[in-house]
Amino acid sequence: MPSLTVLRPGALATVQDLGRPGLAALGVGPSGAFDRRGHLLANRLVGNPADAAGLELLLGGAALRAESPLWMAVTGAWGPVTADGWPVEPHTAVLVPAGAVLEFGAPESGLRYSLAVRGGIDVPPVLGSRSWDTLARLGPSPLTGGQQLPVGGPPHTDVPAVDLVPVGPPPSGTLRLEILPGPRRDWFEDAAWGLLTAAEWRVSARSDRTGVRLEGPELRRSRHEELPSEGMVAGAVQVSPDGIPTVLGVDAPVTGGYPVIAVLALGELDRLAQARPGQRVVLARAFRRG
Amino acid sequence: MRILPFGDAALLAECADLAEVRARLAALRSSMPPGVVDVVPALRTLLVRVDPTILGLHDAERWLARSAPAEPEARAGELVRIAVRYAGPDLAETAGLLGLTAESLVRRHTEAEWECAFIGFAPGFAYLVSDDFPFDVPRHATSRPQVPAGSVALAGRFGGVYPRSSPGGWRLIGSTEATLWDESREHPALLPPGTRVRFEAV
Asked: ipTM, 2 decimals?
């Protein structure tokens, strides 16, 4: 059976797929690849179905050895990735020979690499998904050095012939994200929405798959009573009592008691997943018809 | 009921109280159109998550607005019986706080019919409510670092059973060997929302 050996996991290496939607009423969040678009692209490049499991590699430092010839593709973060010292182009399917060692250096832009392996990482699913949920501690545990990862059989589609993928590296300048008003916008002073959309925010180092904290002006509440816990979604902009907004990630709790002033527009969370600590973020109102 | 916006793929229905949440949850579940990903009950709200490529937000909103709350008798969920050893470390103190003896607290707890209103805090952690148990139980001021799995507990207007060992501030009145959460089961949560629960002293 084809497999990969983890030589070093780097900062945090987890198996991820499209997660566990539909279980929130049981207390289980969506989890799955934080940069879902990167995950989907990597799978497509090696001919995998969209829901095949790959690896999410945070920052640099990971090293993996192919134990048989394996088609792989790296998306998400851009940085020095090599196979036995030879550079591996981003967004390109490469056939890694048996015994070759794939090494991930510190990314130059973005934060987490998505690695797809043709056939998918074939660890046993938990509640229908091979994703590790860092908060609920569900799914296959984070990777450790020496671990062997089974790779599934080849999918029904070939490795597509792709000359050029029109997707660039994650932006390293100011990230502009679209937002929509959240359910508790009226719990804030009138000025708060203006501040939210006018300020230049900085991604806090205290960010992870459960949420990305944004540093900037204080968003003041006009209502100060306690909000009973209510259902949350990934991408919700929740404001803690100190006035700091946090954009909930894919591993956030399924319910929360801080008011949600705004919600990222569909797809924007993928881009925030690649934002680095200190990177600037601007939030702009998205408009919808009707 | 007020329907609040929650981005491109969700709506939040705000109800008057938990009774309305429970009644609406039952009605929504029995009329769910394709494209609904989650209906997540909480203390005063129902979060509806949709796949907007299948069910648009306008249609989701119409569905929410049109569904009438179910009558209580029309929403009797499955009944689960849980055997409890009433020897929790907080049993005597909790009874004292409520002006009861330990024996009468156990009697009130076992005579009540409970229902899972919603799940929160951890996978499978059911918040149980009962019209037969009108007490408001103060939480511990500081959480215990480790509450064993299977601890039967009270806090505020809620009853609960810890599905896994975790930190917690609820008052522990007993313990059960029932498995509240098992991700390898087809139905991982023993007490999903809407389930009726009876505790039995052993």
From this structure: 0.94
